[in-house]
């Protein structure tokens, strides 16, 4: 299994729009065959910082997800909402 941790720091005026787009993507992503879990968090103190923690069966599942219409819609929309570049890491159990 592969875990993806993605961190997005948003412009304050974009938070609600981002959360709406994220909710659509999350709902569809959780239904994908290779998805184990897909969770969304906000910073405890910094409410402009959002975290996705996704667990996927394998690299093929991630590739399928990245090519999906719902992910492409989300990926095409969020960049102008960011205060800085996102941090996206793939990790595996040590």
CATH fold field value: Alpha-Beta Plaits
> Strand arrangement, largest sheet?
2-3-1-4
| Measured distance between first and last alpha carbons | 11 Å
The residue ranges in which pLDDT falls below 50 over 5 or more consecutive positions are: none
Structural class: alpha+beta
Helix content: 25-40%
Number of domains: 1
SSE sequence, one letter per element:
EHEEHHE
CATH architecture: 2-Layer Sandwich
Number of helices: 3
- Whole-number average pLDDT? 95
Task: Compute the number of strand runs.
Answer: 4
Shape: globular
Instruction: Specify Rg, calculated over alpha carbons.
Output: 13 Å
Measured by DSSP, the beta-strand proportion falls in 25-35%
The top-level CATH class is: Alpha Beta
Largest sheet: 4 strands, antiparallel
Question: Concise description?
Answer:
The chain has 94 residues and is α+β, with helices and mostly antiparallel strands. The protein has helices spanning 15-29, 59-67, 69-78, and strands at residues 2-9, 35-42, 49-56, 87-91. The termini are close together.
What features would you describe in this structure?
This protein has 94 residues and is an alpha+beta fold. It has one domain (2-91): 2-Layer Sandwich (Alpha-Beta Plaits). The chain is built from 3 helices and 4 strands, in the order βαββααβ. It has helices spanning 15-29, 59-67, 69-78, and strands spanning 2-9, 35-42, 49-56, 87-91. Strands 2-3-1-4 form a 4-stranded antiparallel β-sheet.
Q: What would the keywords be for this entry?
A:
94 residues, Alpha-Beta Plaits, four-stranded antiparallel sheet
